[in-house]
Amino acid sequence: MKAISASSTRPVTKLTQLELFPGRACALKVKPATNREKQEASRRTIRRDGVKGCGTRRKNAGITGETLFGLDEELEASSREAYKGGTRNRRNEAGQGVGGGHSTDETRENRVEGRIATSTVRAEQGKASGLLPRGKAQSRTKPQKRMDNARKLQRTLYRVAKLQPERRFTLLYDKVCRKDILLEAWKRVRTNGGASGVDKLTINDVKEYGEEKFLQEIQEVLLSGKYRANDVRRVYIPKPGQAGRKRPLGIPTVKDRVVQAAVKIIIEPLFEADFRPCSYGFRPKRTQRMALTEIVSAINSGDRCVVDVDLQSYFDTIDHDLLMEYVSRRVGDRHVLKLIREWLKAGVMEEGKVMHSDKGTPQGGLSEASDKPPYLK
Questions:
Q1: Which pLDDT does position 88 carry in this prediction?
Q2: What would the mean pLDDT of 350-363 be, rounded to a whole number?
Q3: Are 185 and 261 in contact, with CB atoms under 8 Å apart?
């Protein structure tokens, strides 16, 4: 028996009926092949097969001439015979999923009877159309903001302090003097604003003088060991909710505020690792509303008592020696401890007179927030 392959036989030109549905009561009628131009105008569909070069998204399908029963004679040379014996081409340009397409470069034997092959032409679309480059899908997630070096250092210190509860950190002063840490400290001071200190230098004056030059001078003073804390200017502000009563407020110089903020950036993660989750006072990313939410949750759980405690003259009665003892449990760098002690011992200028005290800390400076967490704990 001599086998003749379908690729070596001439395609039939006479329309014949195929029994696609055996067992039907009536015979199928042969539908003549329609005109290609009329079919293209009436049927503007997108097919997944028969694509040359790329996917079928936003493209109009054009009929290649292959019908249900064969191929037109005029397109024979450019279709089946031109790609006789070739394999199915699966190129990377073809999209996958909905709208994806593949090439019709496949043999006659591999085609499924009854399938219509089409070819598409990609319309010229420029950048104004808003389409992404071919082969690239639009990202659905927003790009994450890159973490700065100061934040990375804080996370590292926090993790180490959390894993080693008894560790004392002895190399911290070099990190305080880093340019990126001083820059982050200046950004916080600039954002917080505030009045001038005893030197009458304001935030706007520093901007006019030059921020980079200002930070460079602070770094040189810290590295040379010539930094000295200035006195604090005392002012009085009304106490909220208490008519007629005023609260003393200490305002350090802008230079001291930058150095205090730099020290706070370094030592704050060390004490954060020791606090319990129920503590909300003077801690980063924790507010009074969070504490109230915790109280409401406790009440809903069955608790019925809320104790409100206020420490009288808290800032004026802090013991310096006791505070430094708590701080030194985590901070072992003598240069950093010296800076904190200088801020505690700094004089308070009121009406032109400078006063010194062995207890208490000026309320309003950044060192206030650095001192309270270990003291409260």
A1: 52
A2: 84
A3: yes
